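Weekly modeling sync, notes
Attendees: S.R. (lead), two postdocs, one rotation student

Agenda item 3: backlog of single-chain predictions. S.R. asked that every request posted to the team notebook include the full sequence so nobody has to chase files. The rotation student volunteered to paste the first one in as an example of the format we agreed on. Action items at the bottom.

Example entry:
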Amino acid sequence: MKYISAILLFFFVMFSQTLWGQKKRLSGSLENESETYNLDVLSIRFKVNIVEADEKTPLQVSAEVKDVQKSNIIYSNNSTNGFEVVFLKNRIYTMRFSAPRYEDTLITLNFFKDTLTRMQVEMQPKRVPFEIDITDMETGEELPFGVTLMNKNRNEVINLEPKDGKKGKYKVRLREDDEYELEVKNPKEYIFYSNSINPKKRQKLSAKLHTLKVGAKIPLYNITFAYNSWELNAQSKRELDRITKMLKDNPTVRIEIAAHTDNKGTLKYNMELSRKRAQAVHDYLVAKKIPSKRFVSKGYGPTRPIASNDTEEGRAMNRRFELIVLSI
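Predicted structure, as returned to the notebook:
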């Protein structure tokens, strides 16, 4: 009887150990499955950065993320340049971005297929079409010269070569809220042409170039001054650098640079102001190694208007510089 009891006890112990081992293995399997689930096998942690397309710098935008299938918004922010969001796999999402002066951007993410975990969104600035037409002032002939457009608001330079246009006609898209400085790449037998343009205010520019000859009178659009000032700004210096180059390319040419004002204020005040501005131009050219005998700078005040001083638009036209070729 004792032997039978011992045998039964032995089998009971063995059976208990076997059962315990099975439970332990089953428990371990469940734990592993739980750990795998906690690693987000059914979700993706997604990071988004938003930058300006041209300069690649962070840009504040309004952002919205939507679950297409459930038709609900899972993320929204009116001012962000980056965020992190968790997407579920086997879902489709849309991300919408908007900012003033930039094109709205819509991106679709299909997590039935996509395996992305991060994205850099480049916001494209709003641009408007702009036309440039280069012709000879006297003959009207189309001139196949290149053009450089420099953005005054940011580090953007657009170079257009003759192959980019058709007989001096170009079409380009410019940022609508920025201002550009345009310069024609003309040969030295023509006097340089430069102008400031605001794409939002006009959609076309006709650049009429003068041949280099005695009596040619050219408006200098980019020599400007602050109110009641005769200090040269960066834009004015670039224009004077073009004059310097022209004089060095044509060593026998002699010119006059004439400064004009509108009629606001007394005649004495405006004559003195234009004289000081003309003197600032004189001093700059001399500093650039141009002998003073090759040019004169004169201030005419309001005595030679080209438009009515009764309107602000007319007064703006009268506040000007001109280049006149005296001899070749």
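Discussion: group reviewed the output briefly. DSSP finds four helices and 18 strands in the chain.
Action items: rotation student to repeat for the remaining queue; S.R. to check formatting next week.
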